[in-house]
Amino acid sequence: MSLDRLDKRILAHLQKQGRISNADLADTVGLSPSACLRRIRLLEEHGYIERYAAILNPKKLGRSMSVFVEISLTSQSEETLAAFERAVARSSEIIECHLMGGNSDYLLRIAARDPEDFERIHRDHLTRLPGVSRMRSSFSIRNVKQDNALPISAS
């Protein structure tokens, strides 16, 4: 499936306003509601839309401290990587994990309440991850920009 201009407009609007009604979205992109819904279902079936989610306010939930943790592993073997990734997937405290190129093997993002909470997460979760040889943590002072919307060209 290749995306046309209308598909891209639908995706751009859904990224910004995931709860928009089908009728309003159809009106916004210039389609009938049934044609718009057919396109959305095709975009879902072909994997352009993976899932729908609410974006929560970390401050309201008491998790306003973002910590980025660089992880270096003892080995680059498939077994070491797989064991580490399985352990990360089981930890609800780790909200993002990226396999990296460069100085570290992985970059984790943790949402903690405060330094004491991060100490607990470090002690109870991070130090128990398999295959870790080094960890380096950096604390976010202020979130300058955060956007989950991917750039979509109109052409």
Question: What key attributes describe this structure?
Answer:
155 residues, alpha+beta, Arc Repressor Mutant, subunit A, Alpha-Beta Plaits, four-stranded antiparallel beta sheet, 5 helices, 4 strands
The CATH topology of the largest domain is Alpha-Beta Plaits
| Ends distance | 16 Å
Supply the CATH architecture of the largest domain. 2-Layer Sandwich
Q: Please work out how many helical segments DSSP would assign.
A: 5
Q: Structural class from helices and strands? A: alpha+beta
How many strands, what sense, and barrel or not for the largest sheet?
4 strands, antiparallel
State the low-pLDDT regions, or none. none
**Beta-strand residue fraction:** 15-25%
Order of helices and strands: HHHEHEEHE
How many domain modules?
A: 2
* CATH structural class of the largest domain: Alpha Beta
Mean pLDDT across every amino acid position: 94
Task: Let me know the CATH homologous superfamily of the largest domain.
Answer: Lrp/AsnC effector binding domain/regulation of amino acid metabolism (RAM) domain
* Total count of strands: 4
Rg, Å, rounded: 20 Å
Strand order of the largest sheet: 2-3-1-4
The global form is: elongated
Set down the secondary structure blueprint:
Blueprint: H1 5-16, H2 22-29, H3 33-45, E1 65-73, H4 78-90, E2 94-99, E3 106-112, H5 115-124, E4 132-139
Antiparallel strand pairs: 1-3, 1-4, 2-3
Helix pairs in contact: 2-3
Please explain how this structure is put together:
The chain has 155 residues and is of the alpha+beta class. It folds into two domains: 5-45, Arc Repressor Mutant, subunit A; 65-139, 2-Layer Sandwich (Alpha-Beta Plaits). Helices cover 36% and strands 19% of the residues. It contains five helices and four strands. The protein has helices at residues 5-16, 22-29, 33-45, 78-90, 115-124, and strands at residues 65-73, 94-99, 106-112, 132-139. A four-stranded antiparallel beta sheet has the order 2-3-1-4. A hairpin with a 6-residue loop joins strand 2 and strand 3. Helix 2 crosses helix 3. The chain is elongated and about 55 Å long. The mean pLDDT is 94.
